[in-house]
UniProtKB/TrEMBL annotation:
Record key words, sorted: Hydrolase
Name listed for the protein in its UniProt record: Hydrolase
SUPFAM superfamilies: HAD-like
GO molecular function, one term: hydrolase activity
Length: 205
């Protein structure tokens, strides 16, 4: 069994649904446009910049610069983003099925647990307040604080150094194959997350 396991947060530990922060507050068509993954300057573009350390004020200003009120009331597109930031804790829907039990069982077996996430410190703190099981993680490296994100090899090296890990006996679990592969490339044991049972088996529990 591994001595240490590092977990990604979104779609591994957390069922993160950003649209929940705005559902019912705006028409569905406007939310479809806001969360459209193909939009050049849409939500997902700024979500990545947020993970890289952009402040909420900077994101709103840049979003405003790229969105003119051609089809909506003046200020409406920008208010959408402001409301998202005000209500974003609602996007933390739940923990992924089976993950609280897996964390408990690993901790009980003496495995040290850690986090490494492309997320903001604000959101990480909100998640820990909402889901006490996350308290089993001894520490978390957060991309917004590091100003780099996965799959940059440097962020894994920082986690290894900060947590004083032996990469050969440390697993890293992430839902994205590229992130798991990048972890393997720096000496960790990368596991692509499919579900809690699959990770449990991969860790030999």
């Amino acid at each position: 069994m591994m001595t240490d396991v590092i977990f990604d947060y979104c779609d591994v530990l957390l069922d993160w649904r950003p649209r929940l922060a705005l559902d019912g507050k705006y028409p569905n068509a406007e939310l479809d446009a806001f969360f459209d993954r193909s939009a050049e300057y849409g939500f997902w573009h700024y979500d990545e910049l947020s993970d890289l350390g952009w402040s909420e004020d900077r994101i709103i200003a840049d979003y405003a610069a790229h969105h003119h009120a051609d089809t909506m009331d003046a200020g409406y597109p920008v208010q959408l983003f402001r409301d998202y930031f005000d209500r974003q804790q609602l996007a933390l829907y739940d923990m992924i099925d089976g993950m609280p039990t897996l964390l408990h069982d690993l901790d009980a077996a003496g495995v040290r647990l850690w986090g490494l996430t492309n997320f903001t410190a604000k959101f990480v703190h909100a998640a820990h307040r909402k889901f006490p099981w996350l308290g089993l993680l001894r520490d978390t490296v957060v991309s917004s604080e590091e100003r780099i994100h996965k799959p940059d090899p440097e962020i894994y090296r920082r986690a290894i150094a900060r947590f004083a890990l032996d990469p050969a006996t440390t697993a890293f679990v992430d839902d994205k194959a590229r992130n798991a592969d990048a972890a393997t490339a720096v000496g960790l044991n990368g596991i692509q997350f499919l579900n809690a049972a699959q990770v449990r088996a991969a860790l030999g529990l």
